[in-house]
Write a structure and sequence with these properties.
The chain is an alpha/beta fold and 515 residues long. 32% of the residues lie in helices and 15% in strands. The chain has a domain at 6-365: Alkaline Phosphatase, subunit A, CATH 3.40.720. The strands form three sheets. The protein has an eight-stranded mixed β-sheet with strand order 4-3-6-1-8-9-2-10, with helices on both faces. It has a four-stranded antiparallel β-sheet with strand order 11-12-13-14, covered by helices on one side. β12 and β13 form a beta hairpin.
Length: 515
């Protein structure tokens, strides 16, 4: 009986597929992602379920929409009682590991991962709680602003490159350890998530990646709208990130986009490191590799930056899958990150009976195998800063519908208008689908009740954060365990045994190395 495949998920932060060579960007240098796409499946309409870091990641890990698990914003607790794909994979016999960012908020900092080999890059407490009763209030300590764009450029090191270099090193070492386990006779499959912070802003790149590009290479935003031409929600986002009143020069925009592309290439290099580690331990051909991200980045399109909206550059994510059972091709069906959990469970040999809670996604393995999939849908919810009410998205077929109770509806036909220039919600030619979408939103969500729950959790979290700031409880930030007394060579060890354990590939016992 063949061994079940290993699983390695390589996750970027704030990576829009539009800026990847594998998705057709004319100058983006992403050879490792390109190579995976060339031998695997590229999903061309994959979306996040919430265009913000923590909510998106909690949906990704749980297979559930954020309204179901109250994962509203970057300071929402990810409850320990919510099963994740890490729980299910461990129960199915996999050794599991997280290296890098997952933005877990709350005292549970593992959520089913057997091993977690780095800390997180962001705080694990309730500090970043927004206030929907004061939606126009900026919180300068942690809100994005245009200074981030203005400071774009080159640096030998940043907190982000320090972090990603650590994540890559720890992930590679963990994979090499699995090779050592194989050499000792342990055949258990493994599943690892290597989650990097790049190309998330600040847009500051290492010189060697910055130098991959020139200013002449950099394309500028295709659609630029002034504040007065924005839809109401986009105008609130512009105000919140200061884009409404802090002008950017063409040179500043170009520099930010160049640094972003450089950091896309930097992330791609980390993808290459993970693939090389699998090759080194002889597991590449028995590993399903998945490359994705938590959300995209507007990067100046429509005058917007970062994420926090459901336009394509913000809401879409790359999704590339390669490995055993995955054919080469492209999948046009709309899908989303909640589809990852049922996909991973299927790869691991589980089924619906494995699940402890209902999930909102479906397995993408039929598409990965090249089979037809009747589902062509992605659902999104946004319940974080810069809005006073929930924002919903339905992408079905080529149409995308966006609803917020306080704003006019938006409908875009992406087949005819991929840059979303024309809102056809009031176009008589689209009256029938617009009405269907409106009715579906009203049936699917109770927006008023959801808003009340969001505000209630915000109040409780702000009160708890004040208490924690005053000294109540302990910090939740993850501190990876390390026992130096058991590392490398120590007095209680036979150093020859330690050397043999660490050496990979191991020496063949039949070899004669005497001289």
């Amino acid at each position: 009986m063949p061994r079940r495949p290993n699983i390695v998920i390589i996750m970027a932060d704030q990576l829009a597929p539009h800026f990847c060579g594998a998705y057709g960007h004319r100058v983006a240098k992403t050879p490792h992602m390109d190579a995976l796409a060339a031998r695997g499946m590229r999903f061309d309409a994959a979306y996040c379920n919430a265009p913000l870091c923590a909510p998106s990641r909690f949906a990704f890990m749980s297979g559930q929409l954020i309204s179901r698990i109250a994962a509203y914003d970057n300071a929402s607790e990810f409850r320990a009682s919510v099963p994740t794909f890490a729980h299910y994979l461990k129960a199915l016999g996999y050794r599991t590991c997280l290296s890098g960012k997952m933005h877990f908020v709350g005292p549970d900092q593992k959520h089913g991962f057997q091993d977690r080999v780095t800390t997180d890059i962001y705080p694990a407490d309730f500090a970043w709680t927004p206030d929907w009763e004061a939606p126009d209030e900026r919180i300068d300590k942690w809100y994005h602003n245009m200074q981030t764009v203005k400071e774009s450029g080159v640096a030998v090191a940043t907190f982000q490159t320090d972090y990603d270099d650590e994540v890559g090193f720890a992930a590679r070492r963990w994979l090499i350890d699995r090779g050592r386990d194989r050499a000792s006779g342990d055949e258990a499959p493994f599943a690892m998530v290597a989650s990097f912070i790049h190309p998330h802003d600040p847009y500051v790149a290492k010189p060697e990646f910055w130098d991959l590009y020139s200013d002449d290479d950099i394309d500028m935003p295709e659609v630029v709208l002034s504040p007065k031409d924005q839809d109401p929600f986009s105008r609130r986002v512009m105000d919140g990130i200061e884009a409404s009143y802090v002008p950017l020069t063409e040179e500043e925009v170009r520099r930010a986009r160049r640094a972003y592309l450089a950091n896309v290439s930097y992330f791609d290099s980390k993808t290459g490191e993970m693939v090389k580690a699998l090759e080194d331990i002889g597991e590449l051909d028995n590993t399903v590799i998945i490359v994705t991200a938590d959300h995209g980045d507007m990067l100046g399109e429509r005058g917007l930056w970062y994420k926090m909206n459901f336009f394509e550059h913000s809401a879409r994510v790359p999704l590339i899958m390669a490995g055993p059972g995955v054919v080469q091709g492209t999948a046009p069906n709309a899908c989303s990150l909640v589809d990852m959990l049922p996909s991973l469970v299927e790869i691991a040999g589980g089924d619906s009976a494995t699940l402890g809670e209902p999930v909102d996604g479906r397995s993408l393995m039929p598409l990965a195998r090249g089979d037809p999939d009747p589902v062509d849908e992605a659902i999104g919810e946004y319940c974080a800063e810069m809005t006073p009410a929930p924002v919903f998205m339905i992408r079905r077929g080529t149409l995308k519908y966006i609803h917020c109770d306080v704003d006019p509806p938006q409908l875009y036909d992406l087949a005819r208008d991929p840059m979303e220039r024309v809102n056809v919600a009031d176009d008589p030619a689209y009256a029938e689908p617009a009405a269907r979408f409106a009715a579906e939103v009203a049936e699917r969500w109770n927006s008023v009740a959801l808003r009340e729950d969001v505000i209630a959790t915000q109040k409780s979290r702000r009160a708890l954060h004040a208490a924690m700031e005053a000294g109540a409880g302990e910090a939740w930030d993850y501190n990876p365990p390390s026992d130096a007394s058991q590392q490398y060579v120590r007095n209680h060890m036979d150093w020859t045994v330690a050397a043999a354990r660490y050496r990979f590939p191991p020496l063949n016992k039949d070899d004669d190395h005497e001289t």
